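Researcher: Next sequence.
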Amino acid sequence: MFTTHRILLSRLFGLVVLAYVLLAALPTFSGYWISELGELAGFVLLPVAAFGRLWCLVFIAGKKNETLLTEGPYSIARNPLYVFSFLGVVGFGLAVENPWLAAVIGVWFAACYPITVAHEEKRLASIFGAAYAEYCARTPRWIPNFRLYHEPQTLIVCPAEIRRGILDAMWFLWAFFLWEVLEVFRQMGVLHTWI
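Model: Next structure:
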């Protein structure tokens, strides 16, 4: 079920996370530095995730089922879009000073997305056959191997797909901006927590 409705279920989960962020008080930790260190890590992960997704989209947008992508970010990992998405969702949880939220989102992602990847790998194997099996044999599924990196001299892109991808990737940064606005409203007493 998750594979066929991945985008819808991910968005619904995102709405649940948003409701939690809107209504819940921040967890308290014994050390102020833990929260600050987590927030700093989130600040780093969010732009890495947004720009990483854009980098992937330059290569994959409009070509997903037509061409076996083995260059750029796809030369170092078979699922770089998902890797950067994982960094982004965990980064969001950390950036909003909630390591528990980061952990829950990370566990949810780690539980659901391997199912999608298995389904996609099966489909790609049926489309590209031996070439895909060879690609899988040399390219890691999740953890990037930067020694494998190679890219073409030129690349043809679809501007409409890139524009859509930019808007999609920016959600990581927009979500954090929304968090900052909510934090200001809480400090002003305009927004109260319920949980």
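Model: The first helix runs from residue 6 to 23. The chain has one domain: 39-182.
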